[in-house]
Specification:
binds zinc ion; 246 residues; 4-stranded antiparallel sheet; 22% strand; Arc Repressor Mutant, subunit A; Jelly Rolls; alpha+beta
Length: 246
């Protein structure tokens, strides 16, 4: 499928790591799509038709709980993809994929993706590494939701958003944050109020401005730093292994 995607301005980390020839081949099958706030890329339990390489914006992965509510178990920005199950050869999504901040993605149809995957060891390696980092994020989030106080979890969630949107200002409604953190709205109001009193953030009608990033890191639980450290150790480990390859 011919397209006019610029090969010089790749904003997705997985695609950016590919050798130019492999990237070009993959991009020839990709279509750029706009991600609107609130779009659902796939419902939990439904077949995925595409894998999305996120260029900008934020996609949240939600797991249904009890049939009428759901809790966020992970999120992705331009460091990764939405639709990892396809990489594992499964077309049914285990999670609901909800666009939480508008942006764009390059998407590729499942069959074409599998074909490219077979012929590109670098794409396989990059997705393996992303999968590892994503698993670490999901595992840490499960532990975090169970053990850490709401204010610290909110601080962590804001830092994760900040890192992926590359902006100090973004929009997250209280209702959405409550949904993400698995608490009532009143809980978010209190926790956001405390971060605001400490002058770490400004929060008005869902518009959040990060005023003091270092302070927010101190207010966050260790989970934020731990997941980043796991990813850095993984990258250093795989680099050492590839250096030993014949
Ligand atoms: Zn935590």
């Amino acid at each position: 499928m011919p397209n006019n995607i610029s090969h010089t301005s790749i904003n997705n980390s997985v695609l950016a790591a590919l050798p130019p020839e492999e990237r070009q081949r993959l991009l020839a099958h990709c279509e750029q799509v706009v991600l609107n706030d609130g779009d659902v890329l796939c419902e939990s339990g439904r077949h995925m038709r595409h894998i999305y390489f996120i260029e900008s914006g934020l996609v949240s992965f939600l797991t249904p709980v009890g049939g009428h509510s759901s809790v966020e178990v992970g999120l992705v920005g331009n460091e990764g993809v939405a639709g990892l199950a396809l990489f594992l050869g499964v077309s049914i999504s285990p999670v609901r994929m909800l666009v939480q901040a508008a942006g764009t993605a390059l998407r590729i149809e499942a069959t074409l993706f599998h074909h490219e995957l077979k012929t590109s060891p670098v794409l396989q390696r990059e997705l393996n590494q992303y999968l590892y980092a994503f698993m670490a994020q999901v595992a840490q989030t499960a532990a975090c939701n169970r053990h850490h106080l709401l204010g610290a979890r909110l601080a962590r969630r804001l830092l994760m958003t900040l890192d992926r949107l590359h902006s100090n200002e973004f929009h997250l409604t209280q209702e959405f944050l409550a949904h993400m953190l698995g608490v009532r709205r009143v809980g978010v109001t209190g926790a956001a109020g405390q971060l605001q009193e400490k002058k770490l953030i400004s929060y008005r009608r869902g518009n959040i401005t990060i005023l003091d990033r270092k302070g927010l890191e101190r207010a966050s639980c260790r989970c934020y730093r731990d997941v980043n450290n796991i990813r850095e150790r993984m990258l250093s480990d795989t680099h050492n292994h590839s250096a030993l390859d014949p």
